[in-house]
Amino acid sequence: MSILDYFRSSKKANTATVAKERLQIIVAHQRGERGAPDYFPLMKQEIIAVIRKYVHISEEQVSVQLEQNDDNLSVLELNVTLPERN
Amino acid sequence: MAQIIVVTSGKGGVGKTTSSAAIATGLAIRGHKTVVIDFDIGLRNLDLIMGCERRVVYDFVNVINGESNLNQALIKDKRSENLYVLPASQTRDKDALTREGVGKVLDELSKDFEYIVCDSPAGIETGALMALYFADVAIVTTNPEVSSVRDSDRILGILQSKSRRAEQNLEPIKEYLLLTRYSPTRVKNGEMLSVADVEEILAIKLLGVIPESQAVLRASNSGVPVIMDQESDAGQAYGDTVSRLLGEEIPLRFVTEEKKGLLKRIFGS
């Protein structure tokens, strides 16, 4: 690193912070799917397809999550953001 | 009973074989009878890094198939009394590794050795799954880079669900983070994830940090595990890693930028 770099580098964004934030999101997502049964992704798609038959929504408006509690209890959580009615 | 250590990562090219060779050699130098096994069937490379490529006669798959016995396939290291290498085969397909076959070989090795180091292939296919299945300890080799960290997290999920210890509800595999190719200067400039960042994301115990080092290529060029080069930063960092694996508590080295003289600061390095 030469003296000129001192002036240049100050402008560069801190990409390590960006990397960390992106990783935290993707890893949290990955862990959410960790203990899930093999049929889970397909079931998720089918649930979305059924809702779509009645309401016009995109895939991002539906979140399906499987929460595993300590005491052998699994909760299937389904969140749908419905479009505003005009 | 031997302790079975898997060196794994998910992602390729992060330093699994370099680390397996260094750690196995380190354990042997300290007097522990150690064998290091190449699980990368079809793409064997551990023999090259260990410098015994011309002495391979029989391999892991030959032993599993009963075409040779263990003693014929094990290669005794030239440098350490206590170190042996079990090479992967170069030609067979990956399905050659069966759980029964691998289990039998590990059982037999367990009688003679203190440590069995399993050098996992990249990916999450049969070879990688077999390498981690029987493990007691996992060394998750990770580069401070997004794809490597994500893949390491995937591997942690597999260790916790697809290993023997997970399936049989035994005490879980001990998971350790080995951060390789670390560059303190780039971390300081905000261009690289720091040790603390990766520790926070993966949330496993840190075993060691190996700095990005020219000594690693020099070591592989000459077929001498980098831990033998105790003059080098990487060699010393692997030495520290082995000490921690054996239960010693020693501070991290090579994680802060080395001081540069005034002339270097002005004219660059």
Question: End-to-end span of chain A in angstroms?
Answer: 60 Å
Name given to the CATH architecture of the largest domain in chain A: 2-Layer Sandwich
**In angstroms, what separates the terminal alpha carbons of chain B?**
51 Å
User: According to CATH, what is the class of the largest domain in chain A?
Assistant: Alpha Beta
Order of helices and strands of chain A: HHHEE
Which structural class do you get from the secondary structure elements of chain A?
alpha+beta
Kindly state the percentage of residues in helix of chain A.
40-55%
CATH fold-type name of the largest domain in chain A: Cell Cycle, Chain A
Radius of gyration of chain A: 21 Å
What's the arrangement of strands in the largest beta sheet of chain B? Answer: 3-4-2-5-1-6-7-8
Jot down its keywords.
heterodimer; A: 86 residues; Cell Cycle, Chain A; 2 domains; 2 strands; flat; B: 269 residues; alpha/beta; eight-stranded mixed sheet; 13 helices; 16% strand; cell division (chain B); Septum site-determining protein MinD (chain B); ATP-binding (chain B); septation (chain B); ParA/MinD_ATPase (chain B)
Polypeptide structure, described:
- The complex is a heterodimer of chains A (86) and B (269).
- Chain A folds into 2 domains: 1-34; 38-86, Cell Cycle, Chain A (2-Layer Sandwich), CATH 3.30.1070.10.
- Chain A is 47% helix and 16% strand.
- Chain A contains 3 helices and 2 strands.
- Chain A has helices at 3-9, 15-32, 40-54, and strands spanning 62-68, 74-80.
- Chain A is flat, with a radius of gyration of 21 Å.
- Chain B is an alpha/beta fold.
- Chain B is built from 13 helices and 8 strands.
- The longest helix of chain B has 14 residues, at 16-29.
- The chains are: A alpha+beta (86), B alpha/beta (269).
- The interface between A and B is medium-sized, with 22 and 25 residues.
